[in-house]
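STRUCTURE REQUEST FORM
Protein name: Histidine--tRNA ligase
Source organism: Flagellimonas aurea
Requested output: structure tokens
Priority: standard
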Amino acid sequence: MAQKPSIPKGTRDFSPAEVSKRNHIIQTIKKHFETYGFQPIETPSFENSETLLGKYGDEGDRLIFKILNSGDFISKVDDVTYSSKNSASLTPKISEKALRYDLTVPFARYVVMHQNEIDFPFKRYQIQPVWRADRPQKGRFREFYQCDADVVGADSLLQEVEFVQLYDAVFTDLGLKGTTIKINNRKILSGIAEVIGAKHLLVDFTVALDKLDKIGEEKVKAEMMEKGISEAAIAKAQPLFEMTGTASEQLEKLKSILADSEIGMLGVSELEEIIATADMIGLQSATLQLDVTLARGLNYYTGAIFEVAAPEGVQMGSIGGGGRYDDLTGIFGLKDVSGVGISFGLDRIYLVLEELNLFPESLDSSLDVLCLNFGKKEGRAALKLVSGLRKEGLRADLYPTDTKVQKQFKYADKRGVPYVILLGDQELTDGKFVVKNMKTGDQHDYQLDSLQAFAEKIKSDF
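Status: completed
Returned output:
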């Protein structure tokens, strides 16, 4: 018996309707990327392992999919390493490449390799799949698309403000009103780690804090203690967990807490400028909110960090995120190139739009017109008609066989085709064709030599 086919956990097949909806999101995001002056690039699906490893922290490294070397890779491993069963020492000998974990590190590699061809500041966007060996759950997959926009070579905080506007513009265009753009600054977190005496444990502090919305305050504190952060230090950080009020009120409280931390006060100053400028310009439908517990666990962030939450009432993790990284290209030898970028979570945005029924109804139809097939002679004439309609910009098709008319109508109904054309022997004799509106049942005659007028009528109905 043939084995039943399956796909790996955390991956998905997509139906035509699902692809149409995903393309709707991608095209909307792409439109705004280009409106804001970003240029497209693409990078390979896999990179050299050394490019990716060590850039995302220990937890990120564990989620990177490694690719086995081609050929008899095991024969090249010495007996001592092989018998040790130590994955850390074995992996580099059998795997030299890995699937990309995100688009930011490959972008940094791209900038370094192409620095002599790039005009700085360089604004790029990239829409491609990434892979993570994560535990699959709602809104979290092992293969998914990221839609990134980054600017490198400019340290102005106006870039952060522009990204806030970009988030707002995209989500407003998608009809997803009521999103919350959360903002914080890694310098503030560095300052807090400094004043509580845990400066040397900054990475452990931020990685644990990043899990606050997932596991809660008590478990975050327990994880901090497991990482060596003392109970006294955690107690000093308690105001962080209890911060409330407007952005201005929270920033004033932070000034008091971080008075003795130069880097912490710099973070406060940067947030004040970003929030004030964004407030001056105004947003269409999103809300900019200061969240001092926002950490984003990736190691490369150094300044402002962002995360976007879906409208209230929708149970979904973040649908976007990003931040400032002042020296990401430095890991590849190009020092002092400041960068900032954001990402849209395509798959989660899809789920939110689906839950809120925000996809346009027109996406349900992949055809504007279907021409029925009444036989060999009529089929040839119908194909000529369909070809003419395609030249007029309509999505038109001919049912391929002259099967029962009822079956052809049923097919049109299942495809969500709004208009069906009937071109039988009598219509050919009269030099016309009949158009049936599948929604209302109304029928109208059109002359075969008036395809342009018919096409314009159909387009005006959409």
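Reviewer notes: The first strand starts at residue 39 and ends at 40. DSSP finds 20 helices and 16 strands in the chain.
Form closed.
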